[in-house]
């Protein structure tokens, strides 16, 4: 355990777990959690944890990601509905799962954990995870971690036999699984990362105005320039021009987009669903091929091309304007060659359907990768306007079209 993690973990709350005065940010000497947060006492180690690490090395963005460690971490994430299933591959889904887990943990602990997408042995992410389990606010994997697979203790060596550690874990599982465990927190089994509070916590992690010190699993110092770049947590980017730059350069970032129940997904008076359907069928082969190539849901690409043509036909004037060279955006995916010139296109090449669709699918992919808990409605809202922070009518429309798939009827 590096010195950064050693000093970053908060001490147990004074006064038997009651919240102390002053800041609750870890690292300032205050308690990380109040009465309704995570425990700072109890558990095997006296601090609300198990007294051991279940990881042999760091997992997350730019880390070692040993398959056995990825499996341990992903099993915990899957048990808490942050991943569909355990995995041994440190793919983008796993990396996002770590970030989502950190968002949930920080929400439980009053915002003291920095969301950097990294979990290290004995690091704050793992320790807070253990506290969340022993307090009943998060779940242990159904089978439980295998202590014999990683007999590491707080002293750095195994001072208890694998059998003893296994017995401890079984006892903890029995206690947690009993009727005495606390009820699930109000955030529910699956966290909604579009909610204001968790996202505001994310913003705190990147705000220069945040006076507190957030706990992080990131290394404090490194002599490797590449590692320094990896050590920068993904910033929240909400300005349209900044998002456009991030998309073109493919820089890491988080786009904050909230759900909006007031968004109207119905057909506007000028929409022509038949034009939308025809466009999907005309370009379906190209859409399927490019979507599979880039790892994008083909139906999402079809829903967007449906919407762009059903709502953007302008009674035939759109194609006429394109033919006269007066159109700023080019169908079938309504690409603006001036804005997206950094993706290697111009006003001429954008008229080629294959190029048009390639760029469109690239935009879908890069937008999706930067939205926490992406949905068709959120992705399409940013597609419609790069600076969008709430789902708009166009996004809601695409969400409905994605669900209904009218081109298949």
Can you offer a commentary on this structure?
The structure is a single chain. By secondary structure, the protein is mainly α. It folds into 2 domains: 3-206, no CATH class; 273-408. Helices cover 43% and strands 3% of the residues. It has 15 helices and 6 strands. The protein has helices spanning 3-8, 14-17, 67-79, 92-108, 124-134, 162-176, 196-206, 225-230, 240-249, 273-294, 298-311, 317-323, 353-369, 376-384, 393-404; strands at 42-43, 47-49, 52-53, 59-60, 118-119, 152-153. It has a two-stranded parallel sheet with strand order 1-2. A two-stranded antiparallel sheet has the order 3-6. Strands 4-5 form a two-stranded antiparallel ribbon. Helix 13 (353-369) crosses helix 14. The N and C termini lie far apart (58 Å). Mean pLDDT is 72; it is low at 1-41, 144-162, 171-232 and 314-326.
Radius of gyration: 24 Å
Averaging pLDDT over every residue, what do you get? 72
Number of separate structural domains? 2
N-to-C series of helices and strands: HHEEEEHHEHEHHHHHHHHHH
What can be said about the biggest beta sheet? 2 strands, parallel
The SS-based structural class is mainly alpha
Q: Which overall shape is indicated by the principal axes computed on the Cα atoms?
A: elongated
What's the oligomerization state?
single chain
- How big a fraction of the residues is strand? under 5%
Alpha-carbon distance between the termini? 58 Å
Residue ranges: pLDDT <50 for 5 or more in a row?
A: 1-41, 144-162, 171-232, 314-326
Helix share of residues? 40-55%
| Number of E strands | 6
**What order do the strands of the largest sheet run in, or round the barrel if closed?**
1-2
Count of helix runs: 15
